[in-house]
C-alpha cells in the first residue's frame, strides 16, 4: 500500500493486521474495501448526477411527479435506469410527488331541472377521441373575488379539449367550454357529454347547445362524486399541481390556468396509457388517430 495513503487512513500508525484483529475483520476484506474505492467514487458520482436530473424533472412538473412519472421522463430523455433505483433515490433525498386533496364541488340542482340518463355508468374510458367527454366546474379564489373554470375532458386522451373562465358560473360558462371542444374538431356524431346535475348543466341553454352540436347529454346522480369522478379528479390535480391557492388578481389566475392547461398538462404531463405507456394527452390523441387511420 502507498505510504502516504496508509498514513491518511491510519494516522495513529497501527498496523493493518492489528486493526483488523481488533475489529474482527479479515485482512482480505479490508484490502477488498480499499481496492473498491475508485469504483465506489465513480458510482457515487453517477448517483449524484442522476439525483440532479431527478430534481430538474421534479421541479419541471411543479413538484407533482412521483417515482413512476420521473422514471418515464428519464426514459423519454434516453436515460436507461431502473424504476426501483429512481424510487430509492427519491425516498433517500426526500423528493416526493403531490398528493391531491378532495375538493368541494359547485353542484346545485335546479328547482325545475330536466335530467338526462347516465350514459357513462362510471366507465371513464373511450376507444378513440371525440366519443365521450366529461365536464365540470370549479372555483378559484383571488383577492379580487372568485373566478370560475369550466372544462371538457376527452375520456380517450384525458386532454382538456374545452375550457372557459369567468367571474360567474352561469350556464354560458360551460356552454363556452363545450363550444371550444366542438371548435377544435374531431367530435363524433352522438358524442356523449357527461356532467353532474348542477343547475348550469340542466339549464335550457346548455341542453340546447348539446342538441345543436348533435351530442348526447348524460348525467350522474346528485351528491355522488364518483359518477363524475374523471372530471372531479382533474380539478384536484389542477389545484394540487398549480400550487397557488389564492391569486392576487383574476388576470393572474387566468394566466396560470391557461399555462397549466395548454402548455403543461395537454402537451407535457405524462399519464400512463394501457397500450402506449407514459405519454402526454396530445401524444395519446396522435397515437389513437394513427391506429384508426386506414392502411395505405
From TrEMBL:
<feature type="domain" description="Integrase catalytic">
    <location>
        <begin position="125"/>
        <end position="289"/>
    </location>
</feature>
<dbReference type="Pfam" id="PF13276">
    <property type="entry name" value="HTH_21"/>
</dbReference>
<dbReference type="InterPro" id="IPR050900">
    <property type="entry name" value="Transposase_IS3/IS150/IS904"/>
</dbReference>
<dbReference type="InterPro" id="IPR036397">
    <property type="entry name" value="RNaseH_sf"/>
</dbReference>
<comment type="function">
    <text>Involved in the transposition of the insertion sequence.</text>
</comment>
<dbReference type="InterPro" id="IPR001584">
    <property type="entry name" value="Integrase_cat-core"/>
</dbReference>
<dbReference type="GO" id="GO:0015074">
    <property type="term" value="P:DNA integration"/>
</dbReference>
<dbReference type="InterPro" id="IPR012337">
    <property type="entry name" value="RNaseH-like_sf"/>
</dbReference>
<dbReference type="InterPro" id="IPR048020">
    <property type="entry name" value="Transpos_IS3"/>
</dbReference>
<dbReference type="Pfam" id="PF00665">
    <property type="entry name" value="rve"/>
</dbReference>
<dbReference type="GO" id="GO:0003676">
    <property type="term" value="F:nucleic acid binding"/>
</dbReference>
<protein>
    <submittedName>
        <fullName>IS3 family transposase</fullName>
    </submittedName>
</protein>
<dbReference type="InterPro" id="IPR025948">
    <property type="entry name" value="HTH-like_dom"/>
</dbReference>
Amino acid at each position: 500500500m502507498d505510504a502516504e495513503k496508509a498514513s491518511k487512513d491510519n494516522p495513529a500508525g497501527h498496523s493493518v493486521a492489528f486493526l483488523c484483529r481488533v475489529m474482527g475483520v479479515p485482512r482480505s476484506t479490508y484490502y477488498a474495501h480499499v481496492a473498491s474505492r475508485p469504483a465506489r467514487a465513480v458510482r457515487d458520482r453517477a448517483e449524484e448526477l442522476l439525483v440532479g436530473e431527478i430534481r430538474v424533472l421534479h421541479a419541471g412538473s411543479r413538484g407533482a411527479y412521483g417515482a413512476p412519472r420521473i422514471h418515464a421522463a428519464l426514459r423519454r430523455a434516453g436515460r436507461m435506469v431502473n424504476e426501483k433505483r429512481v424510487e430509492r433515490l427519491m425516498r433517500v433525498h426526500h423528493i416526493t410527488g403531490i398528493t391531491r386533496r378532495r375538493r368541494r364541488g359547485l353542484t346545485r340542482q335546479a328547482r325545475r331541472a330536466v335530467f338526462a340518463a347516465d350514459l357513462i355508468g362510471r366507465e371513464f374510458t373511450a376507444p378513440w377521441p371525440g366519443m365521450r367527454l366529461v365536464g365540470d366546474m370549479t372555483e378559484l379564489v383571488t383577492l379580487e373575488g372568485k373566478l370560475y373554470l369550466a372544462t371538457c375532458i376527452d375520456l380517450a386522451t384525458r386532454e382538456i379539449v374545452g375550457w372557459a373562465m369567468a367571474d360567474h358560473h352561469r350556464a354560458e360558462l360551460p356552454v363556452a367550454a363545450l363550444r371550444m371542444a366542438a371548435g377544435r374538431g374531431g367530435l363524433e356524431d352522438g358524442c356523449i357529454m357527461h356532467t353532474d346535475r348542477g343547475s348550469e348543466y340542466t339549464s335550457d341553454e346548455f341542453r340546447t347547445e348539446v342538441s345543436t352540436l348533435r351530442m348526447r347529454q348524460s348525467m350522474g346522480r346528485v351528491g355522488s362524486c364518483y359518477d363524475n369522478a374523471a372530471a372531479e379528479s382533474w380539478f384536484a390535480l389542477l389545484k394540487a399541481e398549480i400550487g397557488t391557492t389564492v391569486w392576487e388578481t383574476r388576470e393572474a389566475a387566468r394566466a396560470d390556468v391557461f399555462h397549466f392547461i395548454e402548455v403543461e398538462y395537454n402537451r407535457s404531463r405524462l399519464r400512463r396509457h394501457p397500450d402506449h405507456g407514459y405519454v402526454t394527452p396530445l401524444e395519446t390523441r396522435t397515437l389513437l388517430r394513427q391506429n384508426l387511420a386506414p392502411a395505405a
